[in-house]
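User: What would this chain look like folded?
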Amino acid sequence: MSTSGQTAQTPHAPAPEDLLRADLYGFLAALLARPPSRDLLDRAAGLEGDDTPVGRAVTALARLARAATETSARREFDALFIGVGRGELLPYGSYYMTGFLNEKPLARLRADMTRLGIARAEGVFEPEDNIASLCEMMAGLIRGAYGAPADLRTQRDFFNAHLAPWAEHFFTDLEGAESSALYAPVGLLGRTFMQIEREAFRLEG
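Assistant: Here's the prediction, encoded as C-alpha cells.
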C-alpha cells in the first residue's frame, strides 16, 4: 500500500513490544501476499520459536520452510489462493463477513483508509480487504508508515472493524485447508496472533 496524510498524532515512537507486533503483521502479510520467494523461505527457516503458542507455530513453520522449495511453495500458494477459477480459500473480509466479494465491509474499509491516509499502491488491483493487505495496514499503523504511529485506540478500532470479525476464522480455515502444508503453521500462527491481539485490545478497553 502507498500512503498519504497522517494518522492520529502521538509524541512517542512505538514501544519495542509494538514493533514486534508490527514485525509479525508484516511477516504474515509477506507470506500471504504472493508465493514466498527463496529469501522469504530462508527467513522463515531461520526463525526459532519457544514454548509459547506463537513460538510453537514459528517452530513448525521454520521446519517446513527448510524443506520447501520455491516451486513447492508456489504450487501450494496457487492451490490455496488462485486455483483454476478460484483457490481453495478466498482471503477477503467481505467474503467472510457477507458471503460475497466487494460488499459493505470493503466500502467501510475504504472509508477508513481515506480517513487514515492509506492509499492503494499503483498497479494493485486486488480488493483492499485481502488478509495480506490488512496485515500490512496494521503493521503500517503501528510503525507510523501513514504519518505518526497510530495510538492504541486507532489500532484497536481498525482491528475491531476490519480483522476481528473474520481473520481468526480465515486463519483457522488456512490451518486446516486440504492444500495446506507449509501454510498450515502460517494458519496456526495467524490464528494465535489474532486471539492475542483481540484479548489485548479488549483489556485496553
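The first strand starts at residue 2 and ends at 3. If you want, I can go into more detail on any region.
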